[in-house]
Description:
Blueprint: H1 2-18, E1 29-30, E2 56-60, H2 69-82, E3 87-91, H3 97-101, H4 113-119, E4 133-136, E5 139-142, H5 151-154, H6 164-170, E6 178-182, H7 189-197, E7 200-206, H8 209-213, H9 215-228, E8 234-240, H10 247-259, H11 273-280, H12 285-288, H13 293-339, H14 356-366, E9 368-372, E10 375-381, E11 388-392, E12 405-406, E13 412-417, E14 422-430, E15 433-435, E16 443-445, E17 451-457
Amino acid sequence: MGIELFFRIERAFFAAKWGFGTPFCPAPIRREPKLNGCGVAKRGPFLEGLERIYMRTIAVVNQKGGCGKTTVSINLASALAKAGQKTLLVDMDPQSHCAVGLAVPEEQIEQSIYDVLISKSRNEPIKLTEILWQISDRLELAPASIDLSAFEQQMAGIAECESCLKNVLGTMKGEYDYAIIDCPPAVGLLTFNALRAATDVIVPVETGYFALHGLSKQLETLNILCQRASQQVNVRVLASMYDIRTKMAREVLAELRKHFTDKMFRTVVNFNTKIKEAASFGQPISEYDSASKGHRDFRLLVEEVIDSEARQQRRQIVSSLADQLESISATADELLQVAKPAIKAVQAPKTEELKPADIDAKLSDYYGVSQINDAVVFVTLYPRAKSVQIAGDFNNWQPEKTPMQKVDASGVWQTKLDLPVGKYRYRLVVDGQWQQDPYNELTELNPFGEFNSVIEVK
Length: 458
């Protein structure tokens, strides 16, 4: 009894401290409904007073194995939860590695996502809430099981079998902000279910030769599947397991950014031993080592994911306003036709029309970097920026040492530096975002697969 009491105390300690079990005695907290005084389930404090219009569902897909799908799924879901987003992690891989990576003991999983998906076809509906495991305050897991490998055979001949997961997640509207789906390394009914339910798709790509070789075909396959599902899905590529020390990784990252510029995350998930250690302890990197480079990568990824949603919402608002303005304009035109006012047209004075090429030439003459006498003058245009700095090898890549000054309300920024004769590499830091100088054509590829701007002082 003494040993059993010891393990109970140890389990309670780790559950209270981390929200996880230890690798030796895992003890995930089984999800229990929160009841109010009338015995009715109520919403948690995070969602109190908030009714989310829809749940953003992200499928992590790649038919190639070993590219870090499960690692990305676990740590992205955990980082979203850390950022205050109520998150559901759905494991659609029969290998059930999400449960392993979050210290959920396989022998204690009585029901999995498989049971929920096929329950309707058996006329014995099972609610998703009955199988969930609470991992932390804002993160819950719908675990998989080996039974998922028989899902395609079990659902053969059943109508709408590709929409099972979509229907299941549809019952959770308003309960979660994000759902992350870890997909199997194959294109089959399980992956098709994930795509049918998804609003977004992340394709993790290992920065190696074989991963790059088949990426275009994989994206083409995803496009075909999305068309079959009549689904508008935002597909983006994520470079993962990036080892900056190898020339191959740097070249592959540069090629990825060259060919998939608008369909690729700026964030790169670097190769990090702490991430592997965290998985072996059944913890996401945010809990295992919040000071590690791996945690920083996933925090930046979450910022991008959330920011992309905000941009999409802004585009929808602008589109809606544009439609309304177009309708108002059409109505005004109709009124003008009816009224037919006697207004004489006043001929506007002729102005010389500048072609885009002429405008670019004039801008490049004024903005950019130039050498005037013994000083190097940097001039750039960022009307909406709050701060513009320069980081380069001349200031040990510390942007705070070289801030640019805003000249006027038009958004022109400039600074003057005294630099010895030589060749220098630099980047602009605009409101914290590093980028090459858009008005300097001289560039050079850096070890991160991006471009530095170059200035030669003579």
